[in-house]
Specification:
- The structure is a single chain.
- By secondary structure, the chain is α/β, with parallel strands linked by helices.
- It has three domains: 312 residues, ABC transporter type 1, transmembrane domain (ABC transporter transmembrane region fold, Up-down Bundle), CATH 1.20.1560.10; 169 residues, P-loop containing nucleotide triphosphate hydrolases (Rossmann fold), CATH 3.40.50; 71 residues, Rossmann fold (3-Layer(aba) Sandwich), CATH 3.40.50.
- The protein is 64% helix and 10% strand.
- The strands form two sheets. The protein has a six-stranded mixed beta sheet, sandwiched between helices. A four-stranded antiparallel beta sheet has the order 2-1-4-5, with helices on one face.
- Helix 3 packs antiparallel against helix 11.
- The chain is elongated, with a radius of gyration of 36 Å.
- The chain starts with a helix and ends with a helix.
Length: 581
């Protein structure tokens, strides 16, 4: 019931539309109760007496009733379904907006396919709840009560026959609810698993084909689909028995009234018109009961979907603005780590008591073996995560005391794993600065040495590049990512192995461009090729999450420590490769 309560609370902003819908539904229920009265009068006062004097009047009034009922039905259906679509639209946008505020740790433990299932399938499941659940429940109850009152007024003896199946229906409904609710939850969970498996398989289709794993991938997908199928069939087994059973009980009530009523008409204790009206009102009595059971089915599905949606909306972000967070003013670019330790989740520490300083406009390079903590430092500067110990400042401001938006507006990142959206080159670049002029856009592309290859594409800057930039080479994708960061014009620029996928010529050109681009900016460079950071103002060597040494290239080479070993090892590898060529 708590889930239903929350769902109804979400409908509160639409109270005006709901009020209008309720008014129309009440009119619809009222109009449905009028025709049996005309039928009784026509049978008793016209057919029974043979007097056709007022037949035309009764027929016209009945026609007007049916016409008004049609207009009310039309207005009601439009308003309720339009409201349902609006509710689903608003809820889906609300969930998407909420997801964007969650920290990266949430997305690391939740599959993309599962999230897609909740934003699409689970939200869609609530459309039936809005259009057929909340409003029709009240109206069907009113129709049931109205029909019951009419039956009692017409003949209380026959009314008792009508009520005989109702207690049995109530017991069946209770039993159905207790059995079917966990099934619907399982159905929605299994559908989420299918979406997760599908998203994972399609994203990794190249790997699947490269390693000849199509059969194994199909078996895994089939297994997920089989679980979903079994859950669905279990639900079908219940409602395919339940709903026909409810219809059968309603038929027994109708049969009892028809039999008892026929005897009473023959005996003269009941008029034929009353029996005709009675049979019509039985439909108005049992139809709401049958529909209430169907609506209850909708409620059960809505509860199952709502539980999954509210689990999402109740998820808390590890990274949020502090209640008293301030806007970070335009910065000079001074960055400092103060005894920072960090771990991902409950894992081992990947950074241990890291302390260093980056002066405004300084180029600082991070080097070290894989897993040393280089990318973690970049993530902490962007405040994708918070340290478990110590703190980080920009221009003296603790990152936890400034708003995320104001911080990230002044930081740009070119990640090692380049991500491009499935849209045009232009739109991907404009992520760096949505209001950039054409001149600024082209200048950024030229600075990253991307302009020439962009112009060689079929539609230039308006070329669609496919999912994750699949139509581009690795070097082209990284140059676009670099151009996007340059366009943002940040005070702090982070390059996480930004030239790792470009050839030697492109790397040289980008290095030339970076010399001018990095002027006046604080830059943190995580380097794969150590030859690219020889001119860095400061090089920080990391090993197992600790700073081992700090200095410039010449100083660290003289020391003969970790940096010197890594540098000489790379030179040896390059020399070996050249000899083999």
């Amino acid at each position: 019931m708590q889930v239903l309560k929350r769902l109804f609370l979400y409908l509160r902003p639409y109270w005006k539309t709901l009020l209008l819908s309720a008014f129309l539904l009440l009119g619809r229920a009222g109009f449905e109760l009028i025709p049996p009265l005309f039928q009784k009068v026509i049978v008793d006062d016209v057919v029974g007496t043979g007097d056709l004097t007022h037949l035309g009047t009764f027929v016209v009034l009945l026609l007007i009733t049916y016409g008004l009922q049609m207009l009310v039905d039309s207005g009601d259906m439009y308003i309720r379904h339009a409201l349902g679509e609006r509710f689903i639209f608003d809820l889906r946008v609300r969930i998407y907006a909420y997801l964007q505020r969650l920290s990266l740790s949430f997305f690391e433990r939740t599959s993309t396919g599962e999230l897609m299932s909740r934003v699409t399938n689970d939200v869609n499941a609530l459309e039936q709840f809005v259009t057929h659940g909340s409003a029709l429940t009240v109206v069907d109850l009113l129709r049931f009560l109205g029909a019951m009152v009419a039956l009692l007024l017409l003949d209380w003896r026959l009314a008792l026959w009508v009520l005989l199946p109702v207690p049995i229906m109530a017991v069946m409904l209770r039993y159905f609810n207790t059995r079917v609710r966990p099934i619907y939850r399982r159905v929605r969970d299994r559908l989420g698993d299918i979406n997760a498996r599908l998203q994972d398989s399609l994203s990794g289709i190249r790997v699947i084909q490269a390693f000849n794993q199509e059969t194994q991938a199909l078996e895994r997908f089939t297994s997920e689909s089989e679980s979903y199928y079994q859950a669905r069939v279990q639900g079908i087994r219940y409602w395919s028995t339940f709903f026909p059973g409810m219809n059968f009980l309603a038929s027994l009530g109708t049969l009892a009234v028809l039999g008892a009523g026929a005897v009473m008409v023959v005996e003269g204790s009941l008029s034929l018109g009353t029996l005709v009206a009675f049979l019509s009102y039985i439909t108005s009595l049992y139809q709401p009961i049958r529909r209430l059971t169907e609506i209850d089915n909708v409620f059960q599905q809505a509860i199952a979907a709502g539980e999954r949606i509210f689990e999402l909306l109740d998820a808390t972000s590890d990274i949020e603005d502090a209640p008293d967070a301030i806007e970070l003013p335009p910065v000079r670019g001074e960055v400092a780590f103060h005894n920072v330790s960090f771990r991902y989740g409950t894992g081992d520490e990947v950074l241990r008591d890291v302390t260093f300083h980056m002066a405004p406009g300084e180029m600082v390079a991070l080097v070290g073996p894989s897993g040393a903590g280089k990318t973690s430092i970049a993530n902490l500067i962007c405040r994708f995560y918070d340290p478990v110990k110590g703190y980080i400042t920009v221009d003296g401001y603790d990152l936890r005391q400034v708003t995320l938006a104001s911080l990230r507006k002044q930081v740009a990142v070119v990640l090692q794993d380049t991500f491009l959206f499935n849209t045009t080159v232009r739109e991907n670049l404009l992520y760096g600065k949505p209001d950039a002029t054409e001149e600024e856009l082209i200048a950024a592309a030229k600075a990253a040495y991307a302009h020439d290859f962009i112009m060689s594409l079929p539609d230039g800057y308006d070329t669609e590049i496919g999912e994750r930039g699949v139509k581009l080479s690795g070097g082209q994708k990284q140059r676009l990512a670099l151009a996007r960061a340059i366009l943002a014009d940040p005070r702090i620029l982070i390059l996480d192995e930004a030239t790792s996928s470009v050839d030697a010529e492109a790397e040289y050109l980008i290095q030339q461009a970076l010399e001018s681009v990095l002027q006046g900016r604080t830059s943190l460079v995580i380097a794969h090729r150590l030859s690219t950071i020889r001119n860095a103002d400061k090089i920080i060597a990391l090993e197992e999450g600790r700073i081992i040494e700090v200095g410039d290239h010449r100083e660290l080479m003289r020391r003969g420590g970790l940096y010197s070993q890594l540098y000489r090892r790379q030179l040896e590898l390059v020399a070996t490769e050249e000899e083999e060529l």
